[in-house]
Specification:
heterodimer, A: mainly alpha, MetI-like fold, B: mainly alpha
Chain lengths: 296, 310
Amino acid sequence: MSTENETMEEGTSLWKDAFRRLKKNKISMLGFYALAFLIIIAIITPLIAPYSYEAQDLNLGATPPSWKHWFGTDSFGRDLLTRVMYGARISLMVGFIATAVSLAIGVLWGTIAGFIGGKTDTIMMRIVDVLYSVPFILLVIVLMVVVDTKSPVTNLLLMFFAIGAVEWLTMARIVRGQVLNIRKQEFIEACFSMGISKKQIILRHLIPNVLGPIIVYSTLTVPSVMLLEAFLSFLGLGVQAPMSSWGLLINSGVEKMEEYPWLLIFPGLTFSLTLFSLNFLGDGLRDALDPKSSAD
Amino acid sequence: MWKYILKRILEAIPVLLIVYTITFALLKIAPGGPFDSEKQVSPEVKKALEAHYGFDKPLHIQYTSNLVKALKGNLGISTRFKGRTVREIVSEGLPRTLVLGGMAICIALFFGLLAGVTASLKKNTLLDYIPMSIAMFGICVPTFLLGPVLVLIFSIYLGWLPTAGWDASFQHKILPAITLGAAYAAFIARLSRGGMLEVLSQDYIRTAKAKGLSPQRVLFKHALKGGIFPVISFLGPAVAGLLAGSFVVETIFMIPGIGKYYVQSALNRDLTLTMGMTLFLSFLIIGFNMLSDIFLIWLNPKLSFSKESK
């Protein structure tokens, strides 16, 4: 909340400029609207879902798309549209929460390293360098194998944590680079000379100024996290039934794709369109917020 | 140069140690031992098994003795496939995965560079927009979706290619290799387009053109060398992605490569096999990263300075 007010006070032109540029980018705006639509649908799914997501109708079985079931039904007679909608909740939640985790760790790490500088910076960034080379995807798989809690919710939380812990490294690097730059500028020095506390400087002056790259990178992290979740769920190592996520739906769609191709096509299409929207929005934001790009 | 190589090798050691330590720790905190399977075994048998696998010794001794064993290339024995060593399973699956990965990389490089370089030379024309839209498509359609869709179209509806399996024939390899390579082709197209655009706007290219060199000569002698730089630095990390992709592709197409064994071991909760393969795959990934970095420095020695100052 406070950041919104702050950007209004100090950087109106930058943010207005960025928004104006973003608005001109039609594909990005399309991505933005598609995403907003999806998020709203995901939030109100329990209210508007046409069927219950576990309601089976074995007499009906698998049926192709029809007026009654827009996306068709699976072999248990469950409505696919409803399952895709509930899957959206999990997939988007994984995307946003894991990104938030990586954001928190990365921004904190990068800001501290960049702000303190010197030996602390060297050591902290060395750690990031070393961790960068660790193939975390394998460790996440091992983690999901070892910690079999039998409780889907705990597994889900674990996955948020694991994915978030993997994705923070690039964020830390970006933030640290920005902070190093800004820290050298006069207005920060002015803050010091005015006797403003370090905490205040970091929270009120540093972080708002590195917000642009952070936002851009976050938008690009969300799709990669969602991909990771779907990848794990597809292999059977992520979200477990009876919960549903897009990766899981695609996985069960693949098993039956010869007889019932719609079980693969609709979840797959939804997932790809979401990734499209996020990537286009991220690209558009980068162009809009990157001061270098305004030169072209 | 040699100093840099030595430095990179020294840097890889803590990384491998971290991987080893994390996998070891995860193995030890795993609820239930590796022998708590469906079948109940008598306490004596369990004890004998634990002694056989060395699970009865104190933790720090297990830690170091396993490490020494791993360094000698002994990654342990599968607890589910009785009597099979991790090494056997790896050496059985790896050649297939390497063939698949190699084909995928070739496909990715060929189509990616073709699309990216063309797009950069014909910026803001249809020859730019169309390949780049396809590339965006390639990035947004994940491997585990592309594979089944390709099977659906080319194997089931058209009947041109086999749905799954792996033998000496070339037909069996086409779909898996395309599936695995597609995302990389897309990345390479974007990277090479960006790299080329940056190089093409530089003074030395203008000089080369002003000297009256033919466009082909400017392209192949001068621009390409700098333009594909981002692609080469992407290739090292791409190996990690290719391996992860091979988990999916080999599962979809039922190819008995290292990826399928790895996923299978994970789903079977065959802890020792998973650990051993994790170590091996990490070694592979870290090694490839190192090689691509060294290759980059070899191409452009100026980088070794900027890399160190970073």
